[in-house]
């Protein structure tokens, strides 16, 4: 451990001694105060943390940004107050100590076991409606974006993983639970220091490197790359918040990562990106993003949400603290005019997942608009999609007909029609887990899924259905083998 971080071991011991963990804090402040804090309101939690004990003191100090008496801080952080002031985590005045950084308890699952961690970042702006004022090198803490990427990222064991644009290192801490080696990169020197700090605080090894995009890992390959890049689509105004603004025009930062990322993937390695992209007038969003994808890679792109330009500008002006300010209207107008001039009629938000192929065969590309509720974490469903793509690749029709199939256990059948009608007007197959996809099916498709229990091959199932329905078997095969490929690709059926 470098000498400037030699306080992290004693700090970890103090946090553990105070039981400053996610579950303990949630219990101490209660559900109402916990939800209020999620809305950046501190008063309910302040009312629940008045004992002066170590846990209450740490909650007030770091999470509620309230100054605490010096003697309370010393009890909660024995022998550490001066050291943390020197390190820039705390500051003190006559008789009081206040936080200069956030230190937040965090829990991650490691092989099914919850592990208590802590994440240091810059103070959460905007508590209790206070004006938001963040510097250009502000290091964002745990946020909805970092949580979304953590839920998106696959957790299969890998040798090497990369957290591209690490910020305070949240993704690196997650990756360390299932990767032998974790590399974290950023262009923000303050973010790099905080990532090193968080690695040391949690006794987790992270190789932290300075540099833009993939420059710090030139010539290296990874089994998994996870990134929440600075994807905000904004005009070049001379101001830049590093955590959200790349300095590149439009969505060029995301395009660059998607186009060049596969060069840094090992065979069958995954690149997972949380991103915004421009929806340009006169061109479908999936056609535009599809042009970024390499033919030799599998790719699943999911558009989760679309904002109109005005809503998008309002969102990010509030994020930077300009809402209600004297120049709010001018900034709003400039940004909105720029979006109109560049032909951007909407902004998409979602997930881009790319897997590098090694077979020399064309990859499978699916670009899906799916604003509906999904199971979280969604990472396992992304991995299952990749397994289906691999299983179908190179499997010709004869090989598929010789394969046994299993219907996924969570798939349910719904029928729609008038009460008492002899036949339903429609049959819907609906997944209860993962993406929770649904598709309409005819009687043959529904019967095929219902009978897929691994006992008979697809060819045998279609033969039995042809006899039962008095249909020509060859015609049934020609019609439903492509349908089965869709059912496997969408996760309703599994091969083997």
Q: How would you sum up this structure, described in words?
A:
α17 packs across α18. Strands 8-7-6-9-10-12-11-13 form an 8-stranded mixed β-sheet. It is an alpha/beta fold. The chain has 18 helices and 19 strands. The chain starts with 7 loop residues before the first helix and ends with a strand. Helices cover 37% and strands 26% of the residues. The chain folds into 3 domains: 93 residues, no CATH class; 260 residues, Vaccinia Virus protein VP39 (Rossmann fold); 101 residues, Arc Repressor Mutant, subunit A (Orthogonal Bundle), CATH 1.10.10. The model has no long low-confidence stretch (mean pLDDT 92).
Produce a short descriptive summary:
This protein is α/β, with parallel strands linked by helices. It is built from 18 helices and 19 strands. The chain folds into three domains: 93 residues, no CATH class; 260 residues, 3-Layer(aba) Sandwich (Rossmann fold), CATH 3.40.50.150; 101 residues, Arc Repressor Mutant, subunit A, CATH 1.10.10.
Defining key terms:
496 residues, S-adenosyl-L-methionine, alpha/beta, Rossmann fold, protein methyltransferase activity, Arc Repressor Mutant, subunit A, transferase, 3-stranded antiparallel sheet, 37% helix
